Amino acid sequence: MKINNIPGSIPLDSETIRGLIPNLTTQSELNEFEANNIAQALLWTKSSRKIKKNLLTVSGLIELHKQMFGQVWEWAGKFRRSQTNIGVPKENIQNELGQLLGNVQYWLENETYSLDELAIRFHHKLVWIHPFPNGNGRWSRLATDLLLEFNGGNKFSWGSDDLTYENDDRSRYIKALRVADETKDFTDLLKFARGIE
């Protein structure tokens, strides 16, 4: 099966494509199916006690990804099995997530950072680990918003445009992620997430 990639979309490799559940042929069809699945996942997060209790566990994060993409991809909620040009080596995914979740629990309990800074650090590290074949950005943004919400904070705005496509907001977001990668300074990423110019 071949998805005809549109300009600005992320090209899908053959391993990723093999996991496609519906019979789709265009990127726009794929985008629509994913958007519908994510909308259902958002409803699930509103009614699920399980996600509130388990968000900061590996199994909770896996379940969130599965809820977001499980009607579209067979590999939803399963860690990637190949190395990508971003992300930790595939064999380190579980350990890196466990370490991050332990850190976040500690930061929350000890009020190490403001809730916004804690959340943006959480988001950055989820993106950096890149556990799944696809959907990592959308998944990590939703996980971060849930972390904020479950701890009495306000969700981030994440810019005004859809970050799935090439646009000014996506460019600014990726640049802020790279600055955080290189310098461990989260100021630009937090400003972007909060919609501050």
Question: Explain this structure to me?
Answer:
Helix content is 59%, strand content 0%. The chain has one domain: Orthogonal Bundle (Fic-like fold). With 197 residues, it is mainly α. The N and C termini lie far apart (42 Å). α2 crosses α4 and α8 packs antiparallel against α9. It is globular.
Could you name the key traits of this structure?
197 residues, mainly alpha, Fic-like fold, 9 helices, globular
CATH topology: Fic-like fold
Give me the number of helical elements: 9
Task: Classify the beta-strand content into a percent band.
Answer: under 5%
Which class in CATH terms? Mainly Alpha
Count up the domains. Answer: 1
Let me know the largest β-sheet.
none
Helices and strands, in N-to-C order? HHHHHHHHH
Radius of gyration: 16 Å
At the fourth level of CATH, the homologous superfamily is Fido-like domain
* Envelope shape: globular
Mean pLDDT score = 90
Name the structural class: mainly alpha
Please give a quick description of this structure.
The protein is mainly alpha-helical. The chain is 59% helix and 0% strand.
Detail the topology: elements first, then pairings:
Layout lengths: L13 H5 L8 H21 L1 H6 L3 H12 L23 H18 L4 H15 L6 H15 L17 H16 L3 H8 L3
Helix pairs in contact: 2-4, 5-6, 6-7, 8-9
